Structure prediction request, 415 residues.
Amino acid sequence: GHYCVGRWGGIHADTFSLGFGPVLTSWVDKRGTKWQIAAFPLGGYVKFLGDADGSSRADPDALDEMSAADQARSFQGAAVGRRSLTVAAGPLANFILSAVIFAGIAMWSGVATDRPVIGQIADLPGEEVNLRDGDIVLSVNGTEISEFGEIYEIANDLPDAAPLDLRIDRDGQVQTVTVPYPLPPLVFNVEPLSAASAAGLKPGDLIRSAGGVRLHSFGDLRDAVMGAGGETIPMDVQRGDEVIELTITPREMERLNPDGTIETRVMIGVAGDALVFPQTSPPAPWTALWIGAERVVDVITMSLPGIKQIIVGTLGAENLQGPLGIAQISGESATQGIGNLISLIAVISTAIGMLNLFPLPVLDGGHLLMFGYEALRGRPPAEAVMRVAMTVGLGMVLLLMVFATYNDLMRLALS
Prediction:
């Protein structure tokens, strides 16, 4: 983003680096830009003409020695508007990448219909589900329905996790079928670095019993975990045709609720799978892009309150992940399917764009703040002020990385 918009604005890029530190390999293109791959793959930077380094800090000595033509092509010689657009293009590129990835996921997985038409059916080990893709559900336990969500509303209102009698339209013929309870103790997703992940639970596992108690619904599993109070729970898990025994020690975890309150709960870190899902259809490309943009906004609006709570100290800083934690999460997401990993890439890209807009001098948001000052006052901040601000900003970012890495190491030591 920085490179493209800067070039379009007539600003020459001296260096485009993938990674930081010692240069492993490099080449120079016909425009005189040096492209390089460096040893530490923790990001990258663009160094424009007139910059002292990749943080866009000016190099006064180099600028004084430049010809008028070169000064016009330098970052500092560009109008404040062009500099602002060049800086803002970096985070914007992160958001665009995320939106495109989320849009691709939406086109691949499809958008669910509201109609009570059966689509995907979960594989429930040891159980027969008497439904087919395309069945239209007319009523549940004698109650007529018009929307898919009503199936689960009725199931949730039942006093026990009992099977459901569904009246369905299958290829024009109306018939009644009995299906298992649609919210079984079936694992849909395992949260990386969680107790469930450490114990070896996998998506698709059916948890038959916990602590010697037979489970009939995912709600039963939740009750068993809460009732254990952090004590180790033996579980019988059916994985395909095999029944295996696992032991899981729930952990107390802090969760930020949508209303901004923080709740500490005993959890194992699994999400439940539904028995049936509604039929889906691929959205139009423009609809998918809109869905992708909404998802980016959702990630930002869900992340900002958590960051605020960590800063003010009401949410534990152990929730902060550093490079090692992100690498672990990426690895575990990959084992759960390429779709999970791709989605995580989009979330991380959104987070990078968001964090880069924070008003710290060394970050893009700090540069934009300085450019705003320059636009209002007609001159940039004093060089001495800029040096101090850059040093303080860089120190804060480095301290944050060190602290996050310390969290990662402590988590590894205690796991």
About this structure: The first strand starts at residue 13 and ends at 28. The chain has a mean pLDDT of 88.
